[in-house]
Amino acid sequence: ARAVDVERDGSGRVSAVVFVVGPERQRHVVRCERLVVADGVRSPLGKVLGREWHRDTAYGVAGRSYVKSGRFDDPWISSHLELRAEPGGGAGLRAANDKGALLPGYGWIFPLGTAGEGGEVNLGVGALATAKRPAALQIRPLMEYYAELRREEWELGPDLRLPTSALLPMGGAVSGVAGPNWILVGDAAGCVNPLNGEGIDYGLETGRVGAELLASRTDVAEAWPQLLTGHYGEAFSIARRLAGLLTVPRLLPTFGPLGMRSQTLMTVALRVMGNLVTDEDRDVTARLWRWAGRRSVALDDRPPFTA
Ligand SMILES: Cc1cc2nc3c(=O)[nH]c(=O)nc-3n(C[C@H](O)[C@H](O)[C@H](O)COP(=O)(O)OP(=O)(O)OC[C@H]3O[C@@H](n4cnc5c(N)ncnc54)[C@H](O)[C@@H]3O)c2cc1C
Questions:
Q1: From the CB of residue 23, how many other CB atoms can be counted at a distance below 10 Å?
Q2: Mutation to probe ligand 1, out of 36, 41, 128 (largest number of atoms < 8 A from CB)
Q3: pLDDT reading at 51 higher than 80
Q4: Beta-strand relationship, 35-37 and 182-184
Q5: What is the reported pLDDT for 104?
Q6: Mutation test residue for ligand 1: of 4, 5, 36, 39, the one with most atoms within 8 Å of CB
Q7: Closest ligand 1 atom to Cα of 39
Q8: Is the CB of 163 under 6 A from ligand 1?
Q9: Do residues 43 and 91 make contact, with C-beta atoms less than 8 angstroms apart?
Q10: Is residue 278's pLDDT more than 90?
């Protein structure tokens, strides 16, 4: 059922959630003591509660589809950081006929094994953007073009099933994430890693720590953004700063391949991009990353999770 509104008591606490059900849009009111809002990237209920997305820092533009593939059970996920136009390919792509012209965005293919409809891969494309440098790409044509490029190699079928796209707030670029007895978690709270687009683990983690917090306090309005800032603030701040750099045209394709030839650099990159540096780590990379995170937050006009 779709949640469309909340009721509040005199102290500002949410006392009930209003749902509409069925084609007659019947109204149902469900009383609650605490509320966890996990309604994803657009967060309609979060908006009702005052959540705001700030687009000045890096955000994602991404689309995915499902495609039949002879390699649906391949053990590897694949991604292509650099997409190039080829003559005659990619209907609707402006650059499609310029030999080798660089296209904005990257692509991925995730084999699904026997999950879902069976025999399919998840195929998608994405790019990073900021309010200053919006991504100059049309998701659907780019996705079709990417499928065309990989069709032979991945034995892809002709149709892209259930194509969908979204703008993705990242790196805590939202404010208004909590009230006295409610919290936003996962995508609704902008908890997506700006460097690799991962949000599933953050969704699970914020759900867990959020439930613990709600169970232990009567008022979480201050405590929830503080906890998010403590957990993710520094890493998100530096990550979205670096992700903002990646929106500079040609930077990734120019320096990416150089970096990828260095095993040391790639080991460091995968570790920091995946947010795999823990507070206990004492090595040079970990210390540098934490230092950069602290410096980055100090320089932020708007640190993560603030207005
Ligand atoms: C194209 C694409 C590729 C991605 N690839 C990856 C990846 O490879 N790895 C990774 O870790 N992350 C990836 N992500 C991000 C990941 O999908 C999200 O971060 C994650 O799903 C967030 O989980 P969530 O529970 O917060 O929100 P969601 O998974 O979006 O769930 C929100 C739910 O709330 C429901 N809902 C919305 N509004 C209402 C309402 N008003 N009332 C009731 N219910 C409502 C929705 O129907 C939905 O079921 C990708 C995202 C996109 C768009």
A1: 5
A2: 41
A3: yes
A4: parallel
A5: 75
A6: 39
A7: 34
A8: no
A9: no
A10: no
